From TrEMBL:
InterPro entries: CheW (IPR039315), CheW-like_dom_sf (IPR036061), CheW-lke_dom (IPR002545). Residues 19-156 form the CheW-like domain. This is Chemotaxis protein CheW. SMART domains: CheW. PANTHER family: CHEMOTAXIS PROTEIN CHEW, CHEMOTAXIS SENSOR HISTIDINE KINASE-RELATED. One of its GO terms (cellular component) is cytosol. It comes from the Bacteria. It comes from Gimesia alba. Pfam families: CheW. GO terms for biological process: chemotaxis; signal transduction.
Length: 156
C-alpha cells in the first residue's frame, strides 16, 4: 500500500510506502511488530472490564469511544508470565470485522524496513512463538519479530 503526499516546503509529491513500515512494541524484553496499516490506534493504560468465563488470554473488554474492544493479553497468548504491576499499553487493531486491543509492555516507534528482506522465522525460536510469527528482521538493536496478528487472534 502506498500513499501519495505533498511536501508543503517543496510542493513535490512523494510516496509513503506503508508495506515496509511496522509498529513496534516490547513484550518481555523482545521487540515485536505488526504492519502499520493493521493498527487502528495506540493507547495508554485503559480501564478493562473483566469478562467472566473468558479464555485466559482475554483480559476483558474496554470501551473505546462507544466501541466495545476485546483486550487480549499478548503475554498470556505467547505463554509468558504476567507483569507484577499488570500495567499495559494497548495496540488496537481490527481483524475479521472485530476490534481487539493487544496488551503490550511498551510501545516503540514505527520502524521502516524498506531495503531489508524479511527472513524466515529461525528454527531456534520457541515453537509456540514460531506458530504466531510471519518472519523477522535483523536490526542493529537485535531481532525484530513480526507477528501474524490473525493467528494471534484466532483462538480455535
Amino acid at each position: 500500500m502506498s500513499v501519495a503526499t505533498t511536501d508543503s516546503s517543496s510542493g513535490m509529491e512523494s510516496q509513503l510506502d506503508y508495506s515496509s513500515q511496522y509498529v513496534s512494541f516490547w513484550v518481555d524484553g523482545q521487540l515485536l511488530g505488526m504492519p502499520v496499516n493493521m493498527v487502528q490506534e495506540v493507547l495508554t493504560e485503559q480501564v478493562i472490564s473483566p469478562t467472566p468465563l473468558a479464555r485466559a488470554e482475554i483480559k476483558g473488554l474496554l470501551n473505546l469511544r462507544g466501541q466495545i474492544v476485546t483486550a487480549v493479553s499478548l503475554r498470556k497468548r505467547l505463554g509468558l508470565p504476567a507483569l507484577e504491576d499488570d500495567r499495559s499499553m494497548n495496540v488496537v487493531t481490527r481483524v475479521m470485522g472485530e476490534s481487539y486491543s493487544l496488551l503490550v509492555d511498551e510501545v516503540g516507534d514505527v520502524i521502516n524496513v524498506s531495503g531489508r528482506s524479511m527472513e524466515p522465522v529461525p528454527r531456534t525460536l520457541d515453537p509456540h512463538w514460531r506458530s504466531v510469527t510471519i518472519g523477522v528482521f535483523q536490526l542493529e538493536e537485535g531481532l525484530f519479530v513480526i507477528l501474524d496478528v490473525e493467528t494471534i487472534l484466532n483462538f480455535d
